[in-house]
Description:
This protein has helices at 19-25, 62-68, and strands at residues 3-6, 9-12, 50-54, 80-81, 91-94.
Amino acid sequence: MPTVTAQGKTIQCETGANLRQVLLAHGVDLYNGQAKVINCRSLGTCGTCAVEIQGPVSAANWKDNARRSLPPHDPTRDLRLACQTQVLGDITVTKYDGFWGQSQTPVW
């Protein structure tokens, strides 16, 4: 079973599990500020669940690529939408500040 390390927690999940669901189910603060209330609930349209991921995950799908190509995201930055990402192996997740998690300062 893959291990997800995020916000100081180590979580085991099934291979292919949705990263957003895994993080929220284990009490990880995935959203910054009001994004906890105002988000697309996993549709891949808002971009507020953007995180940096180290380790094996699914390839970015068209929703992930499309949303991260729009401001305030920068398509050249190595972020992914947790709601559109499947865990394929042991990963480490970093969340950055800003409403969309698009800034440069790590939150966790």
